[in-house]
Design brief:
Length: 376
Amino acid sequence: MGSLEPNDREMAAYWMPFTHNRYFKQNHARRMLAKAEGAYYWSTEGEKLFDALSGLWCSGLGHRHPKIVEAVKQQLDTVDYSPAFQMGYGPAFKLAERIVGMSPAGMGQVFFVNSGSEAVDTSMKMALAYHRAKGEASRTRFIGREKGYHGVGFVEPMQGSAGVIVPPKGYLQRLREICTKNGILLIFDEVICGFGRMGTNFGAQHYGVVPDMITFAKGVNNGTVPMGGVIVRKELHDALMTGPDHAVEFFHGYTYSGHPLAVAAAHATLDILAAEGVNERVKSLVPVLEDAVHALKGEPNVIDIRNCQLAAAVELSPIEGKPGLRALKVFEESLKRGVLFRFTGDIIAMGPPFISTPDELRRMIEVLREAIRATA
């Protein structure tokens, strides 16, 4: 492969996702990553960067956790790939049972996919199939909320990618009541909230609301190998188990559903979450992050500060006629100071690793303060 630094032809060949491609390819200093370990990345220039968003909300246990690395290496020595259609691989079944056990009461089955987006697509097909099976084929409309990341029909307990939007007190409970009263399936998008970010297994448990389906991805295996899934209530699953036994009940799936490497990484991740008391550790860090980020009140161009468990966002006033540019400049100044944040529009978001120390969280915020002032 040669050098990790791409040449001009290689740089031009890659169409990057969710990225200002033209700007990036002219201004990528400190933005090409070469190494990751624990709560840090290293750039190709050799600069150490605190990972303030846990990758993309997915690597809460830090990068290259030795137990996860070993699990994936061992898996490669046994089964590298197994087909999920009409064949089975035992560890995937065991993982499904573990995830059901971590879920709110009433959940019964897990359908594996490869990402949050595929989980959402799958849950939509499940919802339509469920209503058809119940004799309600005319129910085809999905209801969503503004700023929902994955699309219509879903509720993120905490909207992470939109900039840490926190639901009003009692909102999710009332939503559950309305859905139950009107026979509407309530689907929680827990791609960001699931597996520790909220100090609970899922955001549903943090808020005390049980949905009909939960989509997940990211943290299920610490972002090591692409994986996602949908958790469903047993009644929903059972409603689709009709027709001849030899017929496929739900005509849907993916080549890499329940991929052995992803499953191995997930088992190791769930082991760590339990053995190392990660939910309690997250809860202990919540007040540290909350106090630190709200201390930014009054800094130049800061118009809102939000936090929810181990996630926070600082919203900045846009530069007139140039929306998004102020946050980009703050992002770049932060990189110079050794912290990698996430920016969306004029919002700086952070979801630090669960393994962060209180001092690392405080330094993260002080770097943000310096960057905000430097770009004022």
